[in-house]
Amino acid sequence: MAPAADVAKYAAGLEVGTLMDVRKTYKLFIGGEFVRSESGRAYRFDGSINVPRGSRKDLRDAIRAARTAFPGWAARTAMNRGQILYRAAEMLDGRRAQFVEVLGGGRTASREVESAVDALIWYAGWTDKLAQVAGNTNPVSGPYFNFTIPEPTGVVGIIAPEDPALAGLVRRVAPALCGGNTVVVLAPEAAPLPALTLAEVLATSDVPGGVVNVIGGYHRELLPWLAAHMDVNAIDTAGCTPEELTAIEKAAAENVKRVIKSPPGELSPQLITAFMEMKTVWHPIGV
After folding, report:
1. Per DSSP, what are the bridge partners of residue 215?
2. CA–CA separation, 165 and 167 (whole Å)
3. Is residue 225 part of a domain?
4. Does any domain span residue 204?
5. Tens of pLDDT along 159-170?
């Protein structure tokens, strides 16, 4: 007697032994979990791929998750954050073939994946050196020590660039995480798959839930709320058009939010400090 599974295949008109083409379902990455948009909406990418279309509620959930995860992530030792970023680089390198395919294949895609892995490793090495390079002992008149100490800004909203879609995103997320911030990433509309697939890498590495959150959707629906949300401390505009940048600056001015406008480019420790605050501490000199 034929197995029940074979009977079901015959009933569906499928030949036993043939492989079915199972399409991948992309989801939002919020609080360390892959979730569908609360609205159930999606938009069609590349003619056949459904990309989750996040709503204002999804964005609020992502910001809440990032805010909740921030104290724990900022309190980790610099060495531990470096280890976690290095582990993410290992996981990304282990899925090199998948990312090359997502990026369109060929040498250009392969070089972009290598660049993204190098960026994670490079910023992993900066975590325990940042305080010495960015911090300072200030000369003051009086019986005091005066120190300048870098501290994380908090929750950073990142508008991911479309080109390069993977390396450009990693070069924005890694320095923010290096300094102890948590992030909410808005994937580009025209090239969302690298950002959504990178979330799978972070989910299988040691990055705690809520430290990185990835939202897909239309910029015109989400950008105004990301820029105006009071729980977002800074916003990176690497993937914005000039019109979007103007709107973000206007919305951010109403709650004194830091707007970072440096374009995606080379690796730089200055980009780490762009996501940080400098705190001055006075301490009396003991006898």
Report:
1. 186
2. 6
3. yes
4. yes
5. 999 989 999 999
